[in-house]
Amino acid sequence: MTAFSPRRLAALVVAVGTVLLTGVVTAAPAGAADPVDYRQTKTLTREHVATDGTTTTVDSREVTVQVDRTQSLRGRERIHVSWSGARPSAGRSADPYGFNGMNQEYPVVILQCRGVDDASAPEAEQVRPETCWTSTYLQRYAAGVVSAGVWRHDRYASDEDRADQETLPGWPAECGLLPGSVFAQHLLPFEAASGTVYPSCSNTTIAPESAIDAALPPADIAAFTNLDGTGDVQFEMRTSTENESLGCSSEVPCTLVVIPIMGLSCLDADPACLQTGDFAPGSSNLSDVGVDDAVSPRFWWSESNWRNRFSVPLDFALPPDACDVLDSRAPVGMYGSELLNQASLQWAPAYCLRADRFKFQHNRMPESSALRLLGTGDAVAAFVSDAARSSTVDLAYAPTAVTGFGVAFVADLPDNAGELTQLRMTPRLLAKLLTQSYPATNDVRAHEGLENNPLALNTDPEFLELNPGLSTVAAEAKATILSLSEASDVMTAVTGYLAADPEAMAFLGGEPDPWGMRVNPSYQDIDVPREDWPMLDTYVRESTRECEQLIRSPYLGLVAAPVNSLRKISEAVLDAWPNVQTQCTRSTTTDPWKFGRIARQNYGVRFMLGLVSLGDAERYGLRTAELRTAGTGPGATFVAPSVATMSTAVAQATQTAPGKPFTFDRTSLDPTGYPGTMVVSTAARVSGLDAADAGHVAQFIRTATTEGQISGPGNGQLPDGFVPIASTGPTAALYAAAQQAASTIEAQKGPAVAPPTTPATVPLGAATGSLAVRPPAPRSGGVPVGGTPQTVDGLPAPASADVEAAGPSGTTVAQESGAGGTAVKATLGLALAGVLGAPLLRSLATRRRAS
Amino acid sequence: MSVVEANPFAPPEPGRVLPPPERRVRAPRRPPRPVPPRLPRPTMPEAASVAYTAMLLVAALAGWALLQLFVLGGLSQTRAQQVLHAELRQQLAAETAPTGGSITPGDPVALLVIPTLGVRQVVVEGTASGDLTAGPGHRRDTALPGQAGVSLVYGRSAAYGAPFRSVALLRAGDGLQVTTGQGEFVYRVDGVRRAGDPLPAALDAGAARITLVTSEGDGPLASITPVRTVYVDAMLVGEAATGPGGRPAGVPDAEKALAADRSVLPQLALCLQGLLLAVAATAVALRRLPGRAVWPVAAGIVVALAWASTDAAAQLLPNLL
């Protein structure tokens, strides 16, 4: 451009002065109620420069931003960002995420960016607007008639940013040229972690992760500030696993950029730039009409806004596959409960990164299957909550974690009033949801027994009494709770919670609730507690839809559509994407119809429930419902999961015998204890386990119950959603039992006889399928002298004679059954008696008559 | 020296004239010989008559049961073996014979040949009484024949063809040949094991043993009234195969040695009902129609139902019978 004009010089001086005056960062006062990792206060101003060089301060705010967690973050984890002192927002849109949040005034833009905000760092590692992730290119690219190009009047922007960009060298060929006299354009390319630069001016020049139908919904948000200047939001983290172009990881530092939009500070008296908004503070903009550009989040990258940023440094945890990458040893597989997933994710690096420990691997599977693998010798340890129903081997159970299940919910209040933060559930409401007793649509009222039931949970008077203020528009997703299709101890606990409640049991038994709602007859008198929840309803809806006429599928089963892991449920709730499978889809008009998942719920009308683990709920920042523990009606007690309520509950867990798991008698729990609390134990054989494996299991139990119980986000620490097990306090009994079980497992001198020195593991698990060759089951006195153990599992001891048993000292025991011989002899006798007796009888009878 | 063959096409020698065909003349029918009037059969008192009929009926039923178990059952087993053999051959050729995983009970898994006894049987999966009516059965929670580990093969010793009637006569060193989807395997018999005999030595890693299990009895009717199990152990010669895994970890009680399969009771009840109905219908029909019209129709139905009933009832007997 030209040389400095006096006006520009004046502007520069003012700018420098303003920076010096307002850019003062005050240190965060310590000692806030909630633990926060980041807290900062800044004074933000909007100051215009008039043509005569004088400045007018339009607005000045002292804004404080705090973030609860910034360390060891994981993919899709949600952190809590809150602020105060910001300018109240206006024109609130129903969906604040991604491009949908652009038509708001004075929001707080929160973005995840690669790089650090440190002037001393090399330029490539600095955070810049070019390294900030936006889910659409429209949040980066600006084009409009020259008069509307507000960014061209930003007093803090560089000349280059204010210029007619398409005339500058380096304008990408992919981006079109508009007549410069009429239209102005501004590019903000995205620089990917790989170094690729995406011009981001059209659908074809963007990073792959920002496509419109991307797998994950947008995380970048233009959040709303309330009338009192406060606001808060759960912001979802994306690591390089979810977003490779952004590329945040434990090695690539990233920054959370929080920009409270104050409005552009203008260089001149451009009317578009001087705008202060069309909407009243606190109002909604549900019809998504355009807002004043100068105060919209669309120009977050313009220097006036960018300089107001709060930069929160983010630290990411090792990726979930770190152990596979960093440790080449063979893993020691432990199988079972999904409740432990978040803990084992944090624990694993504490084992695999140390040479003196083993490579710990937790494979999720139904607890009963894991116990069976213990029996066959395919697993060394299993994570379970309930004792094995039947086991051919003796097991010891070491309490390893205290966590539980929760009913996660996402629900929006009507009239754009934000999210519901507290939900109350009773066992009977859970029973209604699980038994598919809500018809979901009016067509299903033809289903016998459901004629007079409310359509969905949110039209049920029992629910409305507990949770007033929600929308009462019924929908399929509101008639169900997303639950597990697989057998799991979690389902045992959930159904045990129902079984312990007289109201829920009366409902399941067929009694109507006080409002006349009845259980779905398909589920009446179902046995609870039970390990899995079956799909019993077979009602096929009469529908005019072609696909439903062609595919005769039970409708309520499609609505419930349980999934096979708790993680999938958590992610469904996180995305507010119900798993209701009633959408008719086909790829082309000639393809056959199939049922698919319905669309994600729109912000503002979300309502979804899911059964989740408390560890997942904490990681994904899901809200969990308060569950009723005692009382009925208005005087009932509802308890939310927390360390305190779970500690109260776990103090009541009991063991039937030493070495057995801790379980709950759910009918007599303390009303202040969280009823979803569960204890996860590590189960392993007490005899016949390879010495090395036994040592690994014992080491795992000891480590997990000591250093693994220190709460924190780091490697080897205990994540949120778990109650630490300590040697004192309510978990003392668990701690003692775990240490004892570790010793029993390490010694391998349980009731069963084990060879004194275990030879190298016989790889027969692989050789013959699940039939591993095992140490001998206890048989009449025989201890094999050395040699390879060789009893086939799964056989009761007396029958093992015909299989294989110990070495020289064992003897064959024949099975005996006289039934066959007796039956054959008796039949033979009858046949002979008949054949011989009949003629005899005849001759006798006739002779007597003749004489 | 040459031999002159008579020319079959040569014209007939002169002088040889064929005699004219003789007309068969039927001998004049003799007048029927007068039959002496049969003496009226002395009638029995009613009670004795009922008892007599009942005894005959019981004898017929018991006789039928024995016939079926030991004679007709053998026929049906032979037929089943033919079908299984064809199926296994086809699977071996197509390389689809099972090598592991979950195999449907009743499917063929191996061909067992014992040359010294002349036994050649297709082994089926499963050891429930019903599976063993078709042939020897492989116990489902053990390694498949040919694979490392211990395989148990159960076989009947008396009924349904008695495929394992004489396996207890095997001597140490006799050979067993097993063909599965994984190849041919040769086993050498270690010996016959009865109650009190020492158990065989421990298996080394990767070794394989097959144990044939059947039953035997004692006394004059030993061959048809077995009471206890007898085992024949044979070690694999050569290298064992490995399987893909996924095998069941246990079997129901009905598949253990000398166990009966009570799950057949409903089927038995239905068969007996059918039999009763068929008999009743026959009896009614006999009153209205001549016997020569009724029996050709009824006999087939009654025999078929009696057959099915006996087959079902036989499953309530020990599976190694």
Name the shape of chain B in a single word.
elongated
Chain pair forming the biggest interface? A-B, 68 and 80 residues
- State the total count of DSSP E strands of chain A: 26
Task: State the helical fraction of chain A.
Answer: 10-25%
Structure description:
The complex is a heterodimer of chains A (851) and B (321). With 851 residues, chain A is of the alpha+beta class. In chain A, 22% of the residues lie in helices and 17% in strands. In chain A, strand 22 and strand 23 form a beta hairpin. The longest helix of chain A has 32 residues. Chain B has two domains: 196 residues, Sortase, Chain: A (Beta Barrel), CATH 2.40.260; 52 residues. In chain B, strands 1-2-3-4-7-8-6-5 form an eight-stranded mixed beta barrel. The radius of gyration of chain B is 29 Å and the shape is elongated. Chain B starts with 45 loop residues before the first helix and ends in a 7-residue tail after the last helix. The model of chain B has no long low-confidence stretch (mean pLDDT 86). Chains A and B meet through helix 7, helix 19 and helix 20 of A and helix 1, strand 4, strand 7 and strand 8 of B. Chain B: It comes from Cellulomonas humilata. Chain B: GO terms for molecular function: hydrolase activity.
Topology (SSEs and partners):
The complex is a heterodimer of chains A (851) and B (321).
Chain A: H1 6-22, E1 38-49, E2 55-67, E3 78-84, E4 108-114, E5 142-145, H2 159-162, E6 183-186, E7 190-191, E8 197-198, E9 221-223, E10 231-236, E11 254-260, H3 271-274, H4 303-306, E12 310-314, H5 322-326, E13 332-336, H6 341-352, E14 360-364, H7 367-376, E15 381-384, E16 395-411, E17 424-425, H8 427-434, H9 461-466, H10 489-499, H11 502-508, H12 546-550, H13 555-560, H14 566-574, E18 583-585, E19 594-596, E20 607-613, H15 614-619, E21 623-624, E22 626-630, E23 637-639, H16 643-650, E24 654-655, E25 662-663, E26 677-685, H17 691-704, H18 732-747, H19 764-767, H20 819-850
Parallel strand pairs in A: 13-14, 13-15, 17-22
Antiparallel strand pairs in A: 1-2, 2-3, 3-10, 4-9, 4-11, 5-6, 7-8, 11-12, 15-26, 16-20, 16-21, 16-26, 18-19, 22-23, 24-25
Helix pairs in contact in A: 8-11, 17-18
Chain B: H1 46-94, E1 108-114, E2 119-125, H2 129-132, E3 137-138, E4 149-154, E5 175-180, E6 183-193, E7 208-216, E8 228-237, H3 265-288, H4 291-314
Parallel strand pairs in B: 2-3, 4-7
Antiparallel strand pairs in B: 1-2, 1-5, 3-4, 5-6, 6-8, 7-8
Helix pairs in contact in B: 1-4, 3-4
Protein name (chain A): Solute-binding protein family 5 domain-containing protein
Signal peptide (chain A): 1-27
Organism (chain A): Cellulomonas humilata
